Amino acid sequence: MLRICIVTRKMVLGGVERTLLSFLSALKEVRDDMHVDLCLQQEGGDLYEQIPDWVCIRKMYSVPKSQAIHHPFQALQKLLICLRARITHKSYTVQCWINSKMYSPLSEEYDIAISYHAPNTIPVYYVIDKIRARKKILWLHGTMEENGGKEQVLFRYHEKYDQVICVSKTVYDSFIRLHPAMTKKTFLRYNLIHAETIRRMAQEGKIFLKGDSPILLTIGRLNHQKGMDIAVEACSRLVQEGYVFKWYICGEGEERNNLESYIQTEHLEEVFILMGNQLNPYGYLSSCDLYVQPSRYEGYCTATAEAKILGKPVITTDVSGAREQFGENETGWIVPISADGLYKQISWCLDHPDETEKIGQRQKWDGLPGERLFDFLWENA
């Protein structure tokens, strides 16, 4: 029986978490003789209930206040760590390293332990310091430069992993640039996307009712990374030029209030519409006319890959993984990371609806099967 532990933060509604669910589904399909623990830094999240029932859910444990009297040493240790994290003015990466020390180790021993949410989060440190496993794997969903990867503490921990998986060529190149000595144990493996699941959920989900106006859609968190403010700026310019359309956003995040103010300032309340989190956005994705990804940076964008599966024309900014998904504007459009770049391509698509639809149909895609991902996992484990 192969014992695997996968460590991540929380099952929020995000691309990393959605690909983790696909990862688990594919893992079950290719091998039955295994026990899988999913160790969460925090329980809950919109996708928590979608964790397969055959997966054993664990929680990274630290002594709660209510139990301090029963575990005085651990409680004091946690208090000192929290104080250290609070008074230091170090980066997010170093803060994660400090905070990782408050969690208790797992008592079990595994064949494989995977830090799935990387490169600079608490799970990166936890897998090395708190889990006993014959093989430890770092699963990178972002580049080093965009995720505090030049911190010396990260260098030390990354080098302790037996294998490193990078979800796009850009992520791979970024890691090797800073870790040339790890080239032989670093691999490029794209995120798993289950096409059948996406298409089934699209049939089950709510859809946009077709009207006179084209429908644009973006799926992503309302934060700086996803570039929703860039999208608002592009939208404002399109409206000023006389274009008629609706642009819907599926997602939630810390930038909602700022975005709502920006939308009101630009008088776009009836055009740029924040829908909040959608557990199943695929009906909306299947019924939109154009998918737009305005991100400032990505590892390998899950939403654009899902749009390809549903045959939707895609405009994406030139982020990591975009050229691997769409080539040089061969099956979608890659634009500069700017409102002007989005404006120019969206306006062209609105002016040429028939050609735009043909692009979407031409790029229909069947996802990535698990067999091409897992063979290397079993080696030396």
Structure description:
α3 runs parallel beside α4 (122-130) and α8 (228-240) crosses α13 (339-351). The chain has 15 helices and 15 strands. The strands form 3 sheets. A 7-stranded parallel beta sheet has the order 3-2-1-4-5-6-7. A 6-stranded parallel beta sheet has the order 11-10-9-12-13-14, with helices on both faces. A two-stranded antiparallel sheet has the order 8-15. The chain is 38% helix and 19% strand. The longest helix is centred in the N-terminal third of the chain and has 16 residues, at 15-30. It folds into 2 domains: 2-189, Rossmann fold (3-Layer(aba) Sandwich); 200-366, Glycogen Phosphorylase B (Rossmann fold). The protein has 381 residues and is an alpha/beta fold.
Q: According to CATH, what is the topology of the largest domain?
A: Rossmann fold
> Which structural class is indicated by helix and strand composition?
alpha/beta
**Tell me, what's the shape?**
globular
Mean pLDDT: 87
